[in-house]
Write a structure and sequence with these properties.
It is built from 14 helices and 22 strands. It is α+β, with helices and mostly antiparallel strands. The chain starts with a helix and ends with a strand. About 0% of the residues have low confidence.
């Protein structure tokens, strides 16, 4: 039975917990097990208006309403203190039957209930709790605020952009770890290693219906797939790259096969390494360039989908080499071209800067500029840090593929050559036992020469193509990692200046995201 069916059944039959309370208030116990009727009677018991039924038709809000009714029921048994109300809300499956069965507890009709005057402290506490619950529901299922942390999407999105991410665009996910400290992601405030969530309850992946599916060119926020394992002392780095670098280091120093795997062992011995569930992995934002079922290829920096050139983002950037006649380009000129302070510093050290073609053309007009040339990596040059990290696929950031993007229900041939492309999907994302013995591939103990995918997958790339850690470096993004669609920038702060300096990018405020 699927998770949504289970949740709907729980919601429909939840009032059955009140069967004794139904009897105590003059109603037949069987009514508590009849969907719709049970909620109608329950509203009568707690003396709430019939129009509350409207809220039961709104997804996510209906669950909040049930908890509110649980608290109102507790008040009918003189549970006015915050502690008892919290117990009722947190443990309703035990608390509600207890109220009905216990001879010590007595029902009082709300109209006969004495008015309780709350202290100002209690009023503030109640208001804060309500605000936290309401904001958590909105953040979890409707809209979440997000800040651009890196320059991988420049100049489409800038570091310091504050934006809203629509969860409803693709449908909100049920959280994998619902027990978590509110308003933080994976680490407790004022700490660097303390988890902000508990894994006592782990829910399977389920996505509610949304307005549509992920489309090519969408700016998508997703949970970073490589964030399933994290080196806590080096959280800004990819764990798998750290291990690969360590393995290469051992391999270069020791040729003996005895030392294979020593790099990974060294990482685990020298650092604190932890695993994170999907919903607690770092949030990334990139542009979707290929969806499930596409065949992606990058030829000389141009993305092709199914053999046809893909549309390029309007503000797409690459790295350019700049040479002058000896007279340097002033910071003011570069700032007027919207070059970030980070790129200006990088230019002074290396002579390279990230630009779009329009800005590069403007630089070529300067009298002291002799050369503005886009960097290009030839197809013959293999980058071992590019997915799938195998010399049989000698790809780089400018020349990549062709690569099939898996679609749920599609089947591919699995052999020694294709396995590096889909091994992580089979063994990690889709939770199979994958093993290779004597040149043969075994999935869940059975020899296999093909595999049928369970999920859809996507390929994400930054608009700042030579300064983006994206799918080219870590591979596919599974559908259960998709968080939402970036839709609106409400504030933009220049990252090189503080709020207190008043450095707001006024021309970048209140803009939709394309």
């Amino acid at each position: 039975m699927s998770l949504p069916v289970i949740l709907i059944l729980i919601l429909l039959f939840f009032p059955v917990l009140l069967w004794k309370i139904f009897e105590e208030t003059g109603h037949s116990a069987w009514m508590s097990a009849v969907p719709v009727l049970n909620y109608y009677i329950w509203l009568q018991i707690i003396r709430k208006p019939i129009w509350w039924f409207i809220f039961f038709l709104i997804p996510f809000i209906n669950y909040f309403m049930v908890f509110l009714m649980v608290v109102e029921t507790a008040k009918c048994y003189k549970k006015y203190d915050l502690g008892n109300q919290a117990l009722a809300a947190l443990f309703p499956f035990f608390y509600l039957p207890y109220l009905g069965i216990s001879k010590k507890e007595q029902y009082i009709d709300p109209k006969d209930r004495p008015k309780i005057k709350k202290t100002w402290i209690r009023e503030w506490v109640d208001a804060i709790i309500f605000a936290v619950i309401a904001a958590t529901i909105i953040r979890m299922f409707l809209v979440e605020a997000y800040t651009i942390p890196t320059s991988s999407m420049e100049k489409s999105l800038l570091v310091g952009d504050f934006l809203f991410v629509s969860k409803y665009a693709y449908g909100p996910k049920v959280p994998n770890t619902p027990l978590a400290f509110p308003f933080v992601h994976h680490t407790m405030p004022l700490t660097t290693m303390t988890k902000s969530y508990l894994e006592w309850i782990k829910l399977p992946y389920y996505r509610f219906a949304g307005f549509g599916d992920v489309q090519r060119m969408d700016a998508v926020v997703f949970n970073y797939p490589g964030g399933d394992t994290v080196v806590l002392e080096r959280q800004n780095e990819d764990y798998y790259r750290i291990v690969r670098d360590a393995e290469r280091d051992f391999k270069s120093r020791y040729k003996d096969k005895y030392y294979e795997g020593m790099g990974r062992k060294a990482v685990w011995q020298n650092y604190h390494v932890t695993a994170r569930p999907v919903d607690k992995r770092e949030n990334y934002i990139k542009r979707c360039v290929a969806v499930a079922g596409d065949t992606l290829e990058i030829r000389n920096q141009q993305v092709y989908i199914d053999g046809k050139p893909e549309e390029n983002p309007e503000e797409m950037q690459y790295s350019y080499q700049i040479k002058t006649n000896g007279m340097p380009i002033s910071d003011r000129v570069l700032r007027n071209l919207n070059v970030s302070q980070e790129d200006i510093r990088n230019y002074k050290m290396t002579g390279y800067v990230h630009l779009n073609e329009a800005k590069a053309a403007e630089l070529r007009k300067l009298r002291n500029v002799e050369l503005v040339e886009r960097n290009h990596i030839p197809s013959s040059s293999w980058d071992p840090n590019i997915f799938p990290f195998d010399s049989r696929y000698a790809w780089n950031v400018d020349n990549f593929g062709p690569l099939y993007i898996p679609e749920a229900g599609a089947t591919v041939e699995i052999n020694e050559k294709t396995l590096p492309l889909y091994a992580k999907i089979i063994g990690v994302y889709e939770d199979n036992e994958l093993e290779v013995k004597d040149g043969k591939i075994f999935i869940n103990g059975e020899q296999a020469d093909s595999y049928t995918f369970k999920y859809d997958y996507y390929w994400m790339m930054g608009d700042n193509r030579h300064n983006s850690a994206d799918s080219r470096f870590w591979g596919f993004v599974p559908e259960d990692h998709i968080v939402g669609k970036a839709v609106f920038v409400w504030l933009s702060l220049d990252k090189d200046n503080s709020w207190f300096d008043g450095k707001i990018r006024w021309n970048k405020l209140f803009r939709t995201i394309n």
